[in-house]
Amino acid sequence: MSVYFVRTAAPVEEVELRLLRREREGASVSDARAVILPRFLAEWEEPDEAEKALIFEAYTGISDEEVLRNLFKKFVDALLGK
Fold this sequence. Notes:
Blueprint (H helix, E strand, L loop, with lengths): L4 E5 L2 H14 L11 H7 L5 H4 L2 E5 L4 H16 L3
Parallel strand pairs: 1-2
């Protein structure tokens, strides 16, 4: 059985706006907060080469449908060895 990860990405400004919106709405179960974003960014460590082979990147600055379509294509390509 193989395990893969999806790493979502967005511009830092967009991430901060999303975190602030979550805080305002107050309905999120996430513990992520805008106040901890600078520390998170400073302490982030990129995955090593072996880990990178298991990660599918998903840019979230597009529609949900496009994100899923792109991820599906990447997953199928990986399964087919492309």
